[in-house]
UniProtKB/TrEMBL annotation:
This is Lipid/polyisoprenoid-binding YceI-like domain-containing protein. The lineage of its organism: Bacteria, Pseudomonadati, Pseudomonadota, Gammaproteobacteria, Moraxellales. Keywords: Signal. The keyword Signal applies. It comes from the Bacteria. It comes from Psychrobacter urativorans. Coiled coil: none annotated. PANTHER family: PERIPLASMIC PROTEIN, PROTEIN YCEI. Residues 34-202 form the Lipid/polyisoprenoid-binding YceI-like domain. Residues 1-32 form the signal peptide. Gene3D superfamilies: Lipid/polyisoprenoid-binding, YceI-like.
Length: 204
């Protein structure tokens, strides 16, 4: 089976998504609006130093999940499902290498996920809004806490879908060894990986 095939992961995908959405709904305020992620505008991009000469980049696309957000009450929650078979770097051979058991091992671990545990807001004049999101990142069968820094986050009335849309950009740097992805760390490829997460969600 090609590692880009989605057929074997459909039921697992649905079960994991349902579980995450149930968890999300049990945490946030009952007054928070519910938004569903728009897969075409939600992705995770990564960058990693390559032997201190250049930076390798790639991404995972078509994220799904749920956002709950109440600006006035300053509450939020988000759950993301990341289909690992959407891996793209622009180099097919490199994609196959990263998908292998040496790195992401996407046959054994076809999904990654992020579930927030706490949202942070700023009330400083001129900088109100989301500043950070704490949560749990599950990747390669391991779960560890991470903190995402919000570089922007906003909601607006979309003239296209005629609904409120919320979205933003978040960034963090992780140590891949914590998720047991260690290949070549002793040979010069750094353990530090920068993640840039873009989400866009439509109010239901």
């Amino acid at each position: 089976m090609s590692y880009f095939s989605f057929s074997r992961t459909t039921s697992l995908y649905q079960k994991r998504l349902a579980a995450l959405l149930l968890l999300t709904g049990s945490i946030v305020s009952s007054h928070a609006a519910i938004y569903l992620l728009e897969p075409n505008n939600s992705n995770v991009l990564f960058a990693i130093d390559h032997f201190k000469t250049s930076t390798n980049t790639g991404g995972f696309y078509h994220l799904t999940g749920q956002l709950e957000y109440d600006k006035r009450a300053q509450t939020g929650n988000v759950s993301l499902i990341i289909p690992m078979n959407t891996l793209r770097t622009g180099n097919k051979a490199f994609d196959i290498n990263l998908a292998s058991a040496d790195f992401f091992d996407i046959i054994q671990f076809p999904l990654a996920s992020f579930v927030s545990t706490q949202w942070h807001f700023s009330n400083d004049k001129g900088r109100s809004g989301v500043t950070k999101v704490d949560g749990l990142l599950t990747l390669h069968g391991k779960t560890n806490p991470v903190t995402l820094t919000a570089t922007k986050f906003n909601c607006y009335l979309s003239p296209i879908v005629k609904k409120t849309v919320c979205g933003g950009d978040f960034t963090t740097t992780i140590d891949r060894r914590k998720w047991d992805i260690r290949k070549y760390t002793l040979l010069g490829i750094t353990e530090k990986v920068t993640l840039n997460i873009q989400i866009e969600a439509v109010r239901q």
